[in-house]
């Protein structure tokens, strides 16, 4: 069996892979192999995950909770219990989204975790840039249009009876 020629690990190659020479040298032997053989590594990982998708999605979730929010799965469950298993904003008990779990809402400036939200509420405040001022303006906008709609309906009803 013929071996493939070794990939030359140049600084420009490493830069394309998201590494510097220093970061590459700090990797384990397996880590360096995966950088040089990214496509093969990806296929191997994909095949492994396909064998036990539930195991790897739970494992990935635990990793993401710690990596992104610095909380454990146990802390997440304690927060959920403290919120009675509901979204902290709308109160739904049915989470949606990719994970079918409540999103961890956090302050993007400080990184501090605030509460658990359903996907819709989390995205809503995210689209409003986590700004209380924008959220208040949006609430005022909806309220003012609700009043207009009610006034228009009332006016239509009065004109029909006349």
Can you put this structure into words, describing what you see?
The protein has 162 residues and is mostly helical. It has three domains: 1-52, no CATH class; 84-130, His-Me finger endonucleases (His-Me finger endonuclease fold, 3-Layer(aba) Sandwich), CATH 3.40.1800.10; 135-162. It has helices at residues 11-16, 21-26, 29-36, 38-51, 53-69, 73-82, 119-127, 132-161; strands spanning 103-106, 113-117. Strands 1-2 form a two-stranded antiparallel ribbon. α3 (29-36) packs across α4 (38-51). The relative contact order is 0.06.
Quick structural summary:
The longest helix is centred in the C-terminal third of the chain and has 30 residues, at 132-161. This protein has helices at 11-16, 21-26, 29-36, 38-51, 53-69, 73-82, 119-127, 132-161, and strands at 103-106, 113-117. With 162 residues, the protein is mostly helical.
């Amino acid at each position: 069996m013929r071996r493939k020629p070794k990939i030359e690990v140049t600084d420009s190659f490493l830069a394309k892979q998201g590494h510097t020479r220093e970061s590459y040298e700090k990797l384990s032997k397996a880590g360096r192999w995966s950088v040089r053989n990214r496509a093969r590594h990806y296929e191997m990982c994909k095949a492994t995950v396909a064998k036990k998708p539930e195991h790897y999605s739970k494992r990935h979730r635990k990793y993401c909770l710690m990596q992104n929010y610095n909380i454990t799965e146990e802390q997440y469950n304690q927060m959920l219990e403290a919120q009675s298993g509901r979204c902290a904003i709308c109160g739904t008990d049915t989470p949606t989204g990719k994970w079918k779990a409540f999103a961890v809402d956090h302050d993007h400036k400080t990184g501090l975790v605030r509460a658990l939200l359903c996907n819709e509420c989390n995205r809503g405040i995210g689209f409003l840039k986590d700004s209380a001022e924008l959220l208040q303006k949006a609430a005022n906008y909806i309220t003012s249009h609700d009043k207009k709609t009610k006034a228009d309906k009332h006016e239509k009803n009065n004109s029909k009876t006349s």
